Amino acid sequence: MTNYSPKILIKLFDTLTNQFQELKTHEKNLLKMYVCGPTVYDRPHLGNARSIVVYDLFYRFFLQIFDKVVYVRNITDVDDKINNSAIEQKISIQDLTSKIISYFYHDIKALNVLSPSFEPKVTENIAEIIELIKKILANNNAYIADNHVLFDVSSYKGYGKLSNRKIDELISGSRIEIADYKKNPLDFVLWKPADKNDDPSSVFQSPWGNGRPGWHIECSAMSHRYLGENFDVHGGGADLQFPHHENEIAQSCSAYQGSDYASFWIHNGFLTVNGEKMSKSLKNFITVNDLLTKGINGTTIRLMLLSTHYRKPLDFNQKILDDSNKILQKFHEILQISDIENNDLSKYKISPIILEYLADDLNISKALAFLHEQQKTIKNNKDSQLLQEYIANLNFLGFLDKSFIDKNLINFESHNVQSIDQNFIEQQLEIRQQLKVQRKFKEADAIRDNLLQMGVGIEDLSNNQSKFYLIKKD
């Protein structure tokens, strides 16, 4: 029974009850969250990235509210899509999954995504999956047919409660696998036999013969291993609500009778491209890497993915990307490199109002509006304490990015040669060097000219470095 309230009131839209609910936890000052992670057969596209970034923001928020947060985001490295992709590319499954996992980490790192507490792989949890299937069979909620272990949907009375639909409606309204060996069309696979063409690395021994687990049972086993029979929040994309999450509930509550599994269910909305659903067949399938290789900043992509409320559909287009980039430029125009380098940003306090906005079902639009107002205030009044709070807010939301600061020249009017210390000048030389690497020679020359006006000369050396010297004035 969840009965512990956090230090502030948190209201979330719970898909299970289809209404807003006050978040309470099973244990005091501890929140446990499970989120469905990637199936590693291809690089993450923007729809995948939206889910990753949304739950990263939830994680960041929960870390501010609870003494401890255990966040589990799995990696599915056993799946039919993976097998098919490996065959198409004529490489082993292990080579494919290792490559895609590396790509995944690279891409989401660019989006300023924090690492979860645990990131289990299916291949590392086969023993746990087998034990869970055994429990479901022992409780008469599953059966064996044609070398498959199948969950018996009719044995679980609560089936359909997450989708808020009856079994007959689910059968008629969903694409489900029809097979002669099923008692009910909705019955789903817990364990499937190996095919003669399967890569050996995707085949595992079990009491029911060599094969591999079904998709749904994997998340139930991994969430149980790291979070127990009952935990607080389960998240994922809206497309996972049925059948994946519905099946997770059925099999977990059948294995651990009396369990509620997850208390709160959160689902983020779909992503479309210029009003159409993202699809390879429509040739509008865009990966995070597609944008990164075009020179789009990862932080810009992050803000774009959070620019619409997480439960609403998000339409990707060039305008929303350009707008996100402009907003980040505006957020950083009042900052200098010295404001964030060599400073312990963890000691800077986040504005309480930001947390209050996010406690209202992650109301990011109000949080962004507040940042705009803070930026205006600081621009007109350089208050150091308010500036630190502003930096803390940007950093907390994952929007603080030095690359935007490097594009802005520091205001030299407030400095003179007597008041400039060596660290300040060296920072300017570093910025100038970065601009030269980026072939932004006009901006680099502006820094040189500004320093010269202040009585500081620059000598460029042969090793792409530079040194400064003071110019004596008559």
Mind explaining what this structure looks like?
With 474 residues, the protein is an alpha/beta fold. It folds into 3 domains: 258 residues, Rossmann fold; 134 residues, no CATH class; 59 residues, no CATH class. The chain is 43% helix and 15% strand. It is built from 17 helices and 15 strands. The strands form 5 sheets. A 4-stranded parallel β-sheet has the order 4-3-9-10. β3, α1 and β4 form a beta-alpha-beta unit. The protein is elongated and about 90 Å long. The chain starts with 10 loop residues before the first strand and ends with a strand. About 3% of the residues have low confidence.
Q: What's the name of the CATH homologous superfamily of the largest domain?
A: HUPs
Radius of gyration: 26 Å
> Which blocks of ≥5 consecutive residues have pLDDT under 50?
407-419
Q: In whole angstroms, how far apart are the ends?
A: 80 Å
Q: Which geometry do the CA atoms define?
A: elongated
| CATH hierarchy: architecture of the largest domain | 3-Layer(aba) Sandwich
Instruction: Please tally the helical runs, counting DSSP H or I stretches of 4 or more residues.
Output: 17
User: What is the count of structural domains?
Assistant: 3
Order of strands across the main sheet? 4-3-9-10
Mean pLDDT across all amino acids: 90
Total DSSP E strands: 15
For the biggest sheet, the summary is: 4 strands, parallel
CATH topology of the largest domain: the name is Rossmann fold
Structural class: alpha/beta
Helix content range: 40-55%
Strand content: 5-15%
